[in-house]
Structures
1.
Amino acid sequence: IPTCTLKATGEMSTEEYFGTDVIISFASYQDVNTDDLQVSGIKDYGIGSTTGNRFVVQTEDSVDGVTYTGYIEDRAGNIGTCSITVKRKAEFVLTYNNNGGTGCTTKAVIYNNAVGDLCIPTRSGYSFMGWFSNESLTNSINSSTIFKNEYTDVYAKWKANNYKVTFNANGGSVGTSNITVTYDSAYGTLPNPTRSGYTFKGWYTDVAEGTLITNTTIVSTAKDHTLYARWTPNIYTLTYNNNGGTGCTSKSVTYNSDYGTLCTPTRTGYTFLGWYTACLLYTSDAADDLIGV
């Protein structure tokens, strides 16, 4: 009498063929006339294919506890039968793909039940927008979604946060006091401050040290923050007017710093009394063109 064995594609155990292909294989293949292969107890959807000594049953995920029976007759008229009962696998495991975030691993879910509370991941600079059952993030799921074993991985969706950037002119003046930037994107156009006697060197994350921020710098501070103007005092040329004397030409001086040592001119028959602008006496700590008296 022909004998048969059962197996299933995939990794389910014998009692867990739900929603998969069931293969019924007949061991006595040499005695089987495959043209006489018949299947009983199978609905129209059930017969997938017959190949050699087996037939394939495509089970429906909406049917639970149905029994599939196949029989085969050899050339001697002997009939062998086999059957399998398709049962639902109740518990599955969802795997969280944090998609750049952290905090979530796996969750047990029950077939044909709501997935229940889902883990909430975190990601610096981003807001969590929910879980999706596909990598392209078009099929959203939530706690009330009924699980049908259509997926076992879920993917987090994120939205980059916006933050307020405030500009501290640090002794100068600036027309734009603040802008809005997006995390993980470039800062974009930054304002140009002004300060009398100084040259602007750029915006920095700290008033004294910090990192230089330009329009192409990627926003990496996950909060509202302040940028500070950095200045370099200008250097000017001081020209001496010897006013009848000789010996002095010019020197370089730095804005908002002492003049330093001033040249001493000479004039026959005269005593040098100091350097002036207009009618004011300038000493070594007082800038502009100086007139000797």
2.
Amino acid sequence: ALRASLGFDLWTLTGVLFSLRAWPSLIQGRIRWATMEDIVEFCGEQLADATSAELLAATKHLVLNQAVLGKGPLEHWEQERRPARLATRPIVQRHDGLVTAMPWAVEMALRIYAHYLGDGRLPWPSSATPLGVQTAIDRYREGRNNHLERELFDAVIGADYRARRNIKKPRVLALERLSGEIDVLAADEDQRVLWILEAKDPQEAFSGRQIADSVRDFHGDGSKRYVRRLLSKVDDVEQNPTGGADALHVPNPDGPWKVRGMIVTRRPIAAAYVPDSKVPFSTLKHVLRDMHSLR
């Protein structure tokens, strides 16, 4: 998708950054200004599998110039929303078209790209990302969340809980209604607790605005409202917890059950530290410990 939309792939983009770490930015103590073709030729010597056209397209995406900056003020607080992120464009271009690469900035940009790619995304705002690329990113992010659900289910099963995943239909739990899909339903038979575990793998937040948006996604009343949705599922299962226990093949499903919800993420997130949260948060690493301590 990236090559079809922008003319290069991620290997070429990161390869250019790797190559430019060795760019001789100074000549006899003075800044070395060069043409874009010089940059492409320099990188091509180390990236034999990439064509000149691919290298040029990738290099242009790393350039910082007046056109990229625009005429308005640089809104630093809009880190994820503005296309002109200084830290991801380590090639500076003058008004006459000559460019130079700053090795220290190249190293920083490479670390940023590596971190974002590890999180399943790119350090570009959606407004500056081609639709095909954004669609591919969204599919990958969805796959990461599905994988977290499987890991969570495997962890619970491995700890000898009776559990079931991806429950979508209310009749499975002998309910009249179910507000949404249950990622994992697990039974603590000793304490008679039914756990509704919600797996969420949100993007890692960096700027203050993005952190605030992430907290609102969980605790707010907007379109996502993850906490409110989880509480609705808890309310649904509480209408007939025996049906939930029976669906998990608990030997003695009858009797009183407590129904609790928990949001499980891959890493700690800001939303987990909101005072007086209506549901507990945990991570995949600590979910079994927290299920035991909170029961």
3.
Amino acid sequence: PVTFSESGEVLLNILGPCGDTSISFPISIISGEITFGSNPQEICQTSTPVQLAAEPPGGQWSGPGIIDGTLGIFDPSDLQGGQQYTITYSFEISPCEISDEIQITVLESESGFFEAPLLCEDSQPLTLTANPSGGKWSGEGIVDPILGIFSPEQSGPGSFEITYVFVDSNNCEVVLTDDLLVEEFPELQLSDSLQLCLEDFAENLNELADFSVNPTGGAVIWSGPGIASSDGLFNSGSAGLTTGFYTVYVDYDRNACSIRDSLVIEIIEKPELVVAFIDTIICSVSGSFQLEV
């Protein structure tokens, strides 16, 4: 065998009975070396995807966690923590292909828990909690990123993404997110006053006072003098009321929002209906006849 250590021109002499001859042809020795950039040797399981680097450019990356072989994007989020993974970089120089490998250890990140509460636009500032504690909070409405104080007055109504970040024992940054909803006040409509008779009869205030709320789905609770049941039945007689003015209240609770309105009911004596009929004789064929009271 002939071993070539460098490129050059090769001369081949052929000796024979018919004479000697020679031919020459070039030999090209293609060599390539891959140089890796400052790629991470260790990466946290919760880290964002990183772009790996190697020279010469234009090669192809492959291996666990590679989500873009051309750009060399490595994503550790779907890999098992505490494991080392082999990543290969291949580069083709026709007719040869060269490749090299790097090792990346994915550090197992600790898990955490954070669940955003449901608030009303008039709720008091609330200290958010997460496990483990000691992290940092961010997002619309966060007025103290260390203590995690959220102010609905600062944020206003709406849905807001709240982020909690802490560093675990492997020095990995763990990011937790959740949507915090601040609801607007429900709209409540109710008549200002009613006039009812003093009698032992249950009447539905929801219908008589044109009561309505938007959005629906909450709890309606009536209270006050004459309220026979919290769902809005009123009975002045069974409650022992007398004539006069009485204020009743309706509370509407939906999730974290609570509103109250009132209604003034005037109780009057039930008037007596006196009908004085005059005896009248009519014939069966007389047609219609107008009665007079």
